[in-house]
Amino acid sequence: IAATQPSTNWHLKENAREHHTSKFSSEELIVRRGQSFTITFNGTERPEQNLIFIAETGPKPSKATKTLATFDISSTASKEGWSAVLQSSSSNSVSISISSPHNAVIGRYRLSVQSGSSSPASLGTFVLLFNPWSSGDDVFMPNKAECEEYVLEEFGIIFAGNKNHISSFGWNFGQFQGDVLNICLSIMDRSLYYRQDPVTDVSHRHDPKYLGRVLSAMVNANDDQGVVLGNWSGKYEGGKNPSSWTGSGEILQSWKKSGFKPVKYGQCWVFAAVLTTVLRCLGIPTRTITNFSSAHDADGNLRVDEFYDADGNHLERGADSVWNFHVWNESWFTRNDLGPSYSGWQVLDATPQEQSGGIYQCGPASRHAIKEGEVDLDYDSTFVFAEVNADCMYWNYDAATGKKTLIFSKSTEIGDSISTKAVGRDDRVDVTSDYKYKEGSREERDVFKKARKKLGLEDKFDPTAPKLEEIEQKPDISGKFKVAGSLEVGKDLNLLLVLENLQSDAKTVNVNMTAWSTLYTRRRVNQIWKDSISVTLAPKEEKQFPIKIKYPEYQQQLTTDKTIQVTALCHVEDGIQVLVKRNITLDNPGIDIQVLGEAKVNKEVVVEVAFTNPIDEEVKDCVLQVEGCDLLHGILELRIPPLKASEKSSTKFKLIPSEAGLKHLLVNFSCDKFANIKTFKMVKVIN
């Protein structure tokens, strides 16, 4: 080889088109494994003779760890290892098609070429990713529309609220934007696994099971100075309220810019959304999943205990909890460690809830294993099984005597309306039946018993088996809260407590009622209201008691999660207590987006955002945040003047779309009285 450095043409456009990597905006070649790519280089004499290529990755490349490959020119691409096939050559340049194996380690590679006995000359670097379009890859996804959604789509919808009232908001995953790929590669190189043993860590990066688990640990800041710091206190000084983010890009960029200090703050959907970005970026098909009435079973007995005092206040006792909703991830890959029936969607959870193997990581747990109660299979199946299946026990706790009395238990409370975004549409799809058999069905109870048995919870020394005080008695009355009217921040909250006497003799009932503002995890923050009533119910009589909580009563107390827990503890004379509870999520007022005119590539288009102040006092500190892939760079922030009672504001701004297709614009409006009013609008961009 001549002493000059060869100059390489990486055929960026053509290779990217073939490898589904055109959305990356990079000057570096980005390709997927198990598929050939073409490069042309010059600076070689008699080029096709005795050329040897060297591809290497990681700190100490070696053939033993499959981080180093040397290969010469062959007549056909190899099925097993790396290979090079001559495409064409002229007197001073040569065109080569290079193929990597289906199970190659992913990451940044250095490529060099050697001719005869001279020393190797560098051709440059390229990045190798997982390949869901290739049937030999562990992440192969046969359905092309699903590949488009779960790898290439940069917009997502995350479901929240509670099971009686599901809401949703848009999220900008932005996995192809700016520096995100480089940040994802940095995340892998900052994990505890890499720090302890870089050579072994890099050699495992061919395996989506391994990377999914490592990245579930790295997206939270616990243990390893990972990307996002969790905060469930309701106080977010020194950082951003978790509800205020609208995309992963800002979070990942902040992490890098700060010198890799954890970004403040996240809650479950932030961890799940960032993990979606990272895994989609690396080529592992991934989606977010929302589980309503999600159990956090801290002690692994598949049971969640909740305690209430005599006034009906929910007590913070014990480590178990039930969240209004919890968001985790599913990623698609094979489970050659468990067998073919366990392949497909795997649960990963980056929210730091319980340690696994000594650090805060969770998964991959096979979704099929969860449905079948195979809680002994790797990884963390017991925890995920409990999230969707735990039984609930509700107790009355007397602090003075330390006595606890079972009020009632429920086996159909947990794991409701498990939701994800539809493929190619902005709709909700219910996937509950992929996690469990129908609630209350024989199969569902059989699976639950099987899981308990596998965990050794069925023997006679079982501390969780019903003791005498746990045997449930039949209540004399039943009760429920009904919502009367709208559930909107700024309006009074109108409820009905409905009590029914189930017996054929009259009953006197003393009812203690409370309402607390909570976080979405149902953690109590402020008491809003309390009241008590005494009622007599004639035989079989049903009575309704209206409850009104006025806006000024709850306005100061409400958290940005906009959630309120209402409880009524009913003490029946000469009978057992009945607990009536309801978790309520209030909606923000609406906000309206209009695109004025046609959206065309590289042409200005005006967007108008309108908001009407629904309350009879002024709102101030109004800020509008806008983001959207291929519609604008970064985040646009606009300050809006204060709005008097019932006043309407209209804000206009300009976009210059950079790419044709269906794009999503995300808008987040906040002021002193309303936090994070979010909406999104699909924008059709034409050439």
TrEMBL record:
It catalyses: L-glutaminyl-[protein] + L-lysyl-[protein] = [protein]-L-lysyl-N(6)-5-L-glutamyl-[protein] + NH4(+). The active site is at residues 268, 326, 349. GO terms for molecular function: metal ion binding; protein-glutamine gamma-glutamyltransferase activity. Ca(2+) binds at residues 389, 391, 439, 444. Its EC number is 2.3.2.13. Binds 1 Ca(2+) ion per subunit. It comes from the Eukaryota. SUPFAM superfamilies: Cysteine proteinases, E set domains, Transglutaminase, two C-terminal domains. Keywords: Acyltransferase, Calcium, Metal-binding, Transferase. InterPro entries: Ig-like_fold, Ig_E-set, Papain-like_cys_pep_sf, Transglutaminase, Transglutaminase-like, Transglutaminase-like_sf, Transglutaminase_animal, Transglutaminase_AS. Residues 260-352 form the Transglutaminase-like domain. Its cofactor is Ca(2+). Belongs to the transglutaminase superfamily. Transglutaminase family. This is protein-glutamine gamma-glutamyltransferase. It comes from Nicator chloris.
